[in-house]
Amino acid sequence: MKTHPIEAAAICAVAVVRLIRAVAVPVVALALTVAGWRPAAVASVPAPATVAPLVAVASLPVRELRQLARIAGHRALARNGRRADLLAALALA
User: Least crowded by CB within 10 Å, which of 8, 53, 60, 76?
Assistant: First the structure.
């Protein structure tokens, strides 16, 4: 059984693409390292542990309690939570 020229060209094309990809990735990584490139810093979200003590939190308005709940990961409470629910959720955080 003889290989058709189109099949041979397709096999060669796949081999060339794999070879280029195998060589290009390390070369680009080396070039970026030599150039001193660094990925952009990710904006950090304050950790729930940095939230003020519960006594100070209890005196905050509901709007700010909802912001703290959003930071702590309580999305549903952040949208429409009541003061008591917000305080309870933040006390557990």
Answer: 53
The two tokens of residue 71 are: 């930071």
Rounded to whole angstroms, how far apart are CA atoms 43 and 54?
26
pTM: 0.42
- Give the ranges where 1-93 is alpha helix by DSSP (H): 5-35, 54-58, 62-72, 75-80, 83-92
Closest by CA to 48, choosing from 92, 8, 4, 78, is: 92
The total number of residues shown for the chain amounts to 93
How many C-beta neighbours within 10 Å does residue 13 have?
10
Tokens 């810093």 -> residue = 41
Q: Are 85 and 77 in contact (CB under 8 A)?
A: yes
